Amino acid sequence: MAFCATCISQIKHARDYQVEMTLLDANGQTVGAQQLAVAKPFKDRDGAGGLVAVMNMEAAIDNPRKWSAEDPYLYQVLLTLRDNEGNVIETTGANFGFREIVLNVNGLFVNGQNVKIKGVNRHENDPTGGKTLTVEGMVKDAILMKQFNINAVRSSHYPNDTRWYDICDKYGLYVMDEALETSDFFIKREGLPGSDTRWLGACVDRVAAMVERAKNHPSIIFWSLGNESGIGRNLMIMGDVVRRIDPTRPISYDGRETVEMQQKDWFDMNSSMYPSIDYLKHHWGQPRDGKPYIMIEFAHAMGNALGNYDVYWDLIEETPHFVGGYIWDWVAQTVWMDGQDGTKRWSHGTDFKRGAAHEGESKHAASDGGVYCLIFSDRSIQPEMHEVKKVQQYIGFKLLSAANAEVELENKYNFTNLNQFVGSWELLRNGEVVNSAAFAPIDVEPGDTAAGQLPVGTLDPGAEYLLNISYKLASDTLWAKAGHEVACEQFILQKATPPVSEGQGAVQLSDGASELVVTGGALSVRFNKVTGLMTSLQVEGQECLAPQSNIKGIDLNLYRAPISNDRWFRGPWMHKRIYAPEQSLLSFDASKEADGSARVRVSKQNVHMNGRVDYQLEYRIYGNGVIRVHCAMTPGQQVLRTSKRCRVLVSS
Predict the structure, then answer these.
(1) Is 636 left (phi over 0), alpha (psi -120 to 50) or beta?
(2) Would you give the distance in Å from CA 558 to the centre of its chain?
(3) What tens digit of pLDDT does each residue of 39-60 get?
(4) Which residue has the higher pLDDT, 255 or 30?
């Protein structure tokens, strides 16, 4: 593997000086010759403070240990300046990692292995310093990402603190370094900088500075020209500048839906934001324009989110040209603020007015954007992080046979053998651990599988048996201690046989003008014949329905409270009054059956502003307290398109 270095040094009155290059491994031992390369100035130019000399050095390294996010092995390049008598004048050094990045229509390949990007978008934010970060805070970010099976980070939407790249080099994170975020919001159209030549110099200067500053960091595997900055010749020229400086790394750009851009030779992979599962399958399911595809932002994690995250990753793993994606986003952009009562609280969107708004939004609209992400500003985690860790774990589990407790393991790592972890299992009977053991050490190379039968013993008929499997670190790492769990799974070996309550026993019906009462033994059930609702359910005089609730009995509900990610759909829901339909009772009748039970039939109608929903409820009530309920619903097509969910609601 070839290694090149270009040195630019001010060496006033030092024309006979020379620079030598030495490579040290992670233990500080010299790799190869003490002097891998020596150079004297070959190009001189005047510079501030004296003569500036440019020197190029090149050396070949045989089979170096490769850097990856799983094995972030770093060498150190040591440069020594000597005078014409061989005396050391100055030394400097930098960490360096050897690795190869290839991007093609079949995906992303790091050191020859097909790597999926399990990434997050990360804004720079500190709860006390705002945009001024501490090393401790940045290290905490890296540790959390590693502990929760995140392997990549996008510097959305600007070049980050240089110390962050050192941390990513050290801890092992794949970085997309991003140059530009425009001050407005341009998608699939020209804006600024666009093709405005007045902005060309600034664009070129910014992207060139980003690449020159960070090109020696092995963690950086992608350059990004920008985010939602529209289209135009200035961006195309930025791509050309990047390729001239560094042809070894792929280029990304997201102005939304790259496939719709007429000219596509200035970036290396297609991308889009927040695609639905159906859109991914039908629009991006096949490679477009000979490029792989990445979700530059997806799984919007602000607020209650990531409910279908596993579905996205099932699709990513089965589609070779899907590179992966970056969750939006990592950390809440909040700071500590002083409350009126002297306490501290997190800032919120309502604390600030927005100077620029997205299309269709009020210029001064309060926003909770940036408040709820994967982690809080103080780096405490939110519940979604556990979903991320589980879905993105690098060990797959498959139950081959429940009867024989036979399980298959799949190694989804790219460079790590499963012998680096210790596995264990436990058997739960009706929620209680009744058996457990450790797995024998096993060699499973990346991409391979292994199967085995677990000695769980004989299962009692009728009981529920769950099998829990866990894999943990066998030894300490930079980001976690031995015993940290990296992957887990639970399988149902045997479902419990639920007790069957046989309906039996006669009941009595008391049918009044506005109320039906069904009694039998210790049971008493009341129905309102005007609304069709069950208004009371008592057993031995104890009320089983919530006495303080305004919901009585069983009814149809098409509504739930909106969450942050519902904002695109909240309007139709509210406008069509899904939450408050006009209800009417179509029919209500009750009869005594031959076996002594009661049958109560209720037919109702919900009328919304976009249509109607007819539904029927049938109750079969027995004297021993068994009540069987059957529900049926016939919705209109417009209601189906608008409604959030369908459920039967009962107070308790």
Answers:
(1) beta
(2) 29
(3) 665 555 544 445 566 677 788 8
(4) 30
Q: How far apart are the first and last CA of the chain?
A: 69
Contact 153, 186 (CB under 8 A): no
340 part of a folded domain: no
- Is residue 238 within 8 Å of residue 203, measured between CB atoms? yes
Query: What CATH number is given to the structural domain containing 144?
Result: 3.20.20.80
User: What is the torsional sign of CA 19, 23, 28, 31?
Assistant: negative
Q: Any idea which residues carry the catalytic annotation?
A: 228, 297
Give yes or no for residue 356 having a pLDDT over 50.
Answer: no
Q: Indicate if 38 and 140 belong to the same structural domain.
A: no
Quick check: is 405 in a domain? yes
329: closest CA among 124, 582, 112, 50?
Answer: 124
**How does pLDDT run across 373-390, given as a tens digit for each residue?**
899 999 999 999 999 999
Hey, how many other C-beta atoms are within 10 angstroms of the C-beta on 338? 9
Under DSSP, the state recorded for 215 is T
- Cβ-count burial of 611 within 10 angstroms (0-12 exposed, 13-18 middle, 19+ buried)? middle
pTM above 0.85, yes or no: yes
Q: Report the alpha-carbon distance of residue 525 to residue 506 in Å, rounded.
A: 14
Residues 144 and 83 in one domain: no
Which range of residues forms the domain containing residue 633?
Answer: 508-650
From CA 382, how far away is CA 369, in angstroms rounded?
A: 16
Q: Is residue 421 situated within a structural domain?
A: yes
Q: Is residue 71 within 8 Å of 172, Cβ to Cβ?
A: yes
In angstroms, rounded to a whole number, what is the distance separating the alpha carbons of residues 119 and 329?
Answer: 9
The whole-angstrom separation of Cα 294 and Cα 271 is: 5
If you average pLDDT over residues 125-135, what whole number do you get? Answer: 92
Q: Where are the beta strands (DSSP E) in 430-475?
A: 432-438, 449-453, 465-473
Domains contained in the chain, number? 4
Residue with token string 């208004």: 535
Final residue before a domain boundary, out of 388, 423, 452: 388
Condensed to tens digits (0 to 9), the pLDDT of residues 309-328 reads: 999 999 999 999 999 999 99
